[in-house]
Backbone:
């Protein structure tokens, strides 16, 4: 029996303890970014696979001069999943929601066209200082958002970290801020 090993590569966007946003490339290197609050930034995409991953940034409530990740978008073909963190008017807490093609995913999971699955987990009380996690699995790409819990403030953070795993190479050409990092890693 032969064992098939896939070449997996990870990249991500995270916010550090000083509330500064960082982009880590597929080879583990820091990738410089200069995002603008409220606009979408394409991180990686393949037009041949009709795939794109984008992030949207907003001003931190802790330090208005810093930008943090407020939304992540994964589009494959006609399926678009958007994960957002926003201040709930009802609870006055920062809450994460996931929507597929504009429809909020209620419950813990959704099966979408093309074999894409979305799993939403909200932890109350927080688990290992995580308030919520959203996993999107499309086979060749997996995206995970993790909203941390601020133990000092006693509430969820106003942002989340985004991890992206590619299971094998994308079809060329590859575009986006991470395209150079991708080319060097695969």
Residues:
């Amino acid at each position: 029996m032969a064992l098939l090993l896939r070449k997996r590569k990870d990249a991500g966007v995270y916010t550090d303890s000083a509330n500064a946003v960082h982009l880590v490339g597929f080879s583990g290197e820091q990738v410089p970014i200069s995002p603008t609050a409220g606009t979408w930034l394409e991180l990686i995409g393949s037009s041949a696979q009709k795939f794109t991953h984008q992030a949207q940034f907003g001003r931190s409530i802790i330090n208005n001069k810093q930008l943090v990740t407020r939304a992540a978008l994964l589009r494959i073909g006609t399926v678009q999943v958007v994960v957002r963190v926003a201040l709930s008017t009802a609870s006055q807490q920062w809450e994460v929601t996931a929507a597929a093609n504009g429809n909020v995913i209620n419950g813990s999971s959704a099966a979408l066209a093309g074999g894409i699955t979305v799993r939403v987990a909200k932890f109350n009380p927080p688990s290992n200082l995580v308030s919520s996690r959203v996993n999107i699995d499309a086979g060749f790409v997996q995206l995970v958002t993790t909203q941390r819990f601020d133990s000092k403030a006693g509430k969820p953070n106003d942002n989340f970290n985004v991890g992206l795993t590619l299971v094998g190479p994308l079809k060329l050409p590859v575009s986006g801020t991470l395209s150079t990092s991708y080319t060097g890693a695969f």
